[in-house]
Amino acid sequence: MKIAILQFNIAWLQPTENLRRLDSFMKTKPVADVYMLPEMFSTGFVMQPKDIRENADSDALEWMKQQAYQSDSAICGSIAMKDGELFFNRFCFVKPDGSVTEYDKRHLFTYSGEQQHYTPGSKRVTVTYQGVRMLLEVCYDLRFPVWSRNRHDYDIILYVANWPTSRIKVWNTLLRARAIENQCYVAGANRIGSDPACNYCGCSAIIDPYGNPIVECGREQEGWIVADIDMVKLNAFRKKFPVLEDSDEFEIQTI
Q1: Does 114 qualify as catalytic in the annotation?
Q2: Does the annotation count 105 as an active-site position?
Q3: Tens digits of residue pLDDT in 142-200
Q4: Choosing from 39, 102, 114, 216, which is the catalytic residue?
C-alpha cells in the first residue's frame, strides 16, 4: 500500500479557497492508495465553529467523496463538523465507494480552549482498507500513548494535525515513539503557514516500525510525500520480535 501526505498552507477561515487550492494539488498528486490531509484542512484550527462549521453534507466532505471516487483511492483529514447541536473535530476517512469512517478527536487541546467549543469523542476507531488496519487519531491525541496503544488491532496510525513550530521537536519525537512502542507504521500529516495563534512548519513524515523515517517533508515546504507500507515486512518483524505478545492487558474508561 502507498500512503501520500499533503503538507500545505491552510488559508485561515477560507474553506472555498482551501478546496480550490486542494483541487490544484490533487492534479499533481503521486500515485497512492490513501491520501492524507492535515487537521481541519478546510478552515485551519478554528475555535469559532458556529461561524465556520461544516455539516454532514458539507462542501469539504463532498469534495473528499468526489476525490476518492475519481482517484479510486481513499482520502482522509479532519473537519470542524456540526452534528445535531454539537461540534466535533472529526477525522473522516473516505473510501472510493463514498463510505465514510468517522473518528471524533478524543483529547481536546485545553491549552487553546478547544474543549470550550467541541465535544470530545468517546470511541477509539480503526478502519481497514486494502488489507491494512489503520488507527485514526487527531493532533493532541499523539501525546496520550494509552489511547493509541496497539491492542493487536491495527498496522498503522494516521495522525492529522495542526502542530505548531514551537513544539515541533515534540511532534518529531512522539511520532517515532508511537511507532516503536506499538510496532507499527505511523503517518503524520501536519500543515505549514500561520493562523492568529500559531506558526506551523510542517515536518510531516511516515515512520517505519523501528522508528526510522521512511520519508519526511521539509520545514515550510508545500507538497506531497509518499511511502510504501510493507505488510510482509511488518508481519515478519512482529513474528520475529513479538513485542505486542508481551504487552499488558488494560481497559480504557471513557465518558
Answers
A1: no
A2: yes
A3: 999 999 999 999 999 999 999 999 999 999 999 999 999 999 999 999 999 999 999 99
A4: 39
98 within 8 A of 68, measured Cβ to Cβ:
yes
- Annotated active-site residue 139? The verdict is yes
Catalytic pick among 105, 201, 216, 217:
105
SS3 content of the chain, % helix, strand, coil (to 5): 30, 30, 40
> Alpha-carbon distance 126 to 147, whole Å?
12
79 φ/ψ angles, rounded to the nearest 5 degrees: -135, 145
What is the DSSP annotation of 3-55?
EEEEE-BPPTT-HHHHHHHHHHHHHTPPS-SEEE--TTTTT-S-S-HHHH-B-
Average pLDDT of every residue of the chain: 95
Of the residues 65, 76, 114, 139, which is catalytic? 139
